[in-house]
Amino acid sequence: MKKDKMLFVRIAADIENELENVRKVKSDFLEFRGAYPIIDRFLLRALASFLEDFYNACEKVFKIIAEELNGGVPKGENWHKTLLNEMATRIGKRPAVLSPELTQTLVAFLGFRHIVRHVYGFILDASKVEDLAVIFPKTADRFCAEIGRFTKNMKQSDAH
Q1: Counting beta carbons within 10 angstroms of the beta carbon of residue 88, is it exposed (0 to 12), middle (13 to 18) or buried (19 or more)?
Q2: Which of 29, 119, 130, 154 could hold 50 in an S-S bridge, CB 3.0 to 4.6 Å?
Q3: Helix (H, G, I), strand (E, B) or coil at 38
């Protein structure tokens, strides 16, 4: 196997491991929603944690791609947003990883993750948490599908 092809297979395996984490977060989230259909202030914090975990897994995938194929993770104060935007952009021979529509949806999860990390749980806005909770399962599915297509194409191509 050529050296580049081996690299792409390894990167794809690393990414697939993170996609399994996304699927596990989604599965646990759906089980949680079934067990706790009415969310109180304590359960709101738990719900926020699932949404934060989801974006953390997404960003780990982006970091793998950036470090291995883009030459590194962006620097600077807004590196998280820059990294997400890079995933929606063709960089050199690497095609865009995400569709513009999914990227826009993920911007909301990125912003929410920032809030969860920087405010007290009792400050969380229940309606914003619920808005993301409603779209989370389909967003997770779409993320896995788009990243899956990217890794499949990467393994089949020597163009990267």
Answers
A1: middle
A2: 29
A3: coil
Q: Which of 25, 47, 38, 29 is nearest to 129 (CA)?
A: 47
Phi, psi of 72, rounded to the nearest 5 degrees? 135, 165
* Cα(11)–Cα(90) distance, integer angstroms: 18
How many C-beta neighbours within 10 Å does residue 154 have?
24
Each of the 160 residues of the chain gets a pLDDT tens digit; together they read: 466 778 888 899 999 999 999 999 999 999 999 999 888 999 999 999 999 999 999 999 999 999 999 889 999 999 999 999 999 999 988 999 999 999 999 999 999 999 998 888 888 899 999 999 999 999 999 999 999 999 998 888 754 4
For each of the domains in the chain, give its residue range(s) and CATH number, in order of start: 3-153 (1.20.120.330)
- Hey, which residues does 34 pair with through a beta bridge? none
